[in-house]
Amino acid sequence: MTKTAEQQQRAATTRRNWALSAPALLVLALFASGPLLIVLVYSFLRPGSYSGVEWEFSTEAWQGIFLTRDIFDGTLGWADAHLSIFWRSVKLSLTTTILTFAFGFPTAWFIATRPARARAFWLFLITIPFWTNLLIRTFAINEVIRNEGLMNTVLIKLGVIAEPIRVIYTDTAVLIGMTYVYLPLMVLPLFAAIDRFDMKLLEAGYDLYASRWQVLRRVVLPIVKPGIVAGSILVFVPSLGAYVTPRVLGGGKNMMIGNFIELQFGQGRNWPLGSALAMLLLLIVMVALLVYVRAATKGAPQGGH
Amino acid sequence: MAKRSARPFSVTDLPGFATIAIMAFVALYVPILTLVAYSFNGATSVAVWGGFSLQWYVAAWDNTVVQAAAMRSLGIAACASVLATTVATMAALGTTRTAPFRGQTAIYVAINQPLMVPEIVTAVALLIFFAAIKVATGYTGLAYLVMAHTAFCIPFAYLPIRARLEGMDLSLETAAADLYASRWRTFRYVTLPLLAPGIAAGAMLAFVISLDDVVITEFVKSAGQDTLPTYMLGQMRRAITPETNAISTALLALTVLLLTAFFLLTRKRD
Predict the structure, then answer these.
(1) Which of A268, B29, B201, B259 could form a disulfide with A263 if both were Cys (CB 3.0 to 4.6 A apart)?
(2) Start and end of every ABC transmembrane type-1 domain (chain B) (predicted)?
């Protein structure tokens, strides 16, 4: 079969485009995607006696996430310690997502309804924390909530409390910290969605005698839904894999999945269990992303009303 | 005459929203400003205010461990952002302004993959991978950190470059080709100068992202390879010192500076 000039041209374009992309793909394959496969393999091996792995197939690590063998009679039972860490991570991440939405939606609405010049200013104010080092922002919130921090100092000076409120190194501290550090991640996609929202629809709603609440719930929220889903994913995914914030504000005891994974590669010396946990975390994140893609593609025609 | 309310009814105002928004902005900035203020604290204790002083900046500046960590941070960020920007520019040229080709979506997904995988998972993966290479080759230098940073910086460098390219139409390049410019000369004298702001923006973003990284660096680094963020995280295990606040404030200032430059580079000219 002879190729037409057009087909040859197309084949040349494809070759050129792949060649141009190849260096980036190579770096990513070697230092980002490829190693994930090694983790998958490791999750099906046995832990080595000191660290590392024994090259022997086993599903022990995956079982070990949920089940534990009793050291006295050898019966299997639920691994309560692991499950409570999982439950805490999911609970804290969901609560963080809800809290950032509760603060983020009014904030995004406020920014989107300012006049153009003021809007750029408010948006810049959100962007600075967005790009500021997560560690620095965690230190910053630590300065406020620690026992001798700003919050307690001010409250004691004002005579509201006599003893400092001990919130640091609790789940509440981790929750406050995550809400603080991830708030900009919620505001920006919400802003993008509200910015595209046609404000004339509000007038139409009011003309039809809808209350403000009805307009918000029946008109605004359905239309900006893709932004809500995007913001929620952007907050939920890093919250679930959070490592720095629970480590600094949770103080070692209040672990989340991320810290628990690290433990398996440090003191725990159970690389296969750590690998299985990492893969499980990745799986949950992938499911969340699929939900997002489906919701975003379904929501897209709605936005065009 | 009927008395009118001072403010006309505005359809876009929702009750309480402005109040919550202002509260959110205050909540976002009070901790950061507290951190900055404490870095200028003259007292040795973090609990009391001892007047304005630069002593913690001097202490951080004179600390040889901090100096080494800062140099390492900047060096890694410089290498990683140059490498990431170079490959990202090529990839952007290959994936924009072209007829749809086989595998285009796959390339797009692969490039953005670091944005989708939780950092802790990548960190663990690289820890295992590099541990094996370290055993096999005996090399324990900084190249591991540079390559790890390069990989996760690629999407951040790629996105602004791609955005810039998509806004450039092909007519100038076509004109150059019509005037018998070779492909290379067209790229060198037409495409590259037009693309330069996008490349600069991408490089800056990659630099900031590399400079800020904690999790992957913490897992990949060998002994004695602390960067500024991992050094600060290590300090947190002990008591918080105002010195950490001073380093944080310096990093914060650098980030704001680079971001302002980024915005000036990418803003749309009216």
Answers:
(1) A268
(2) 70-265
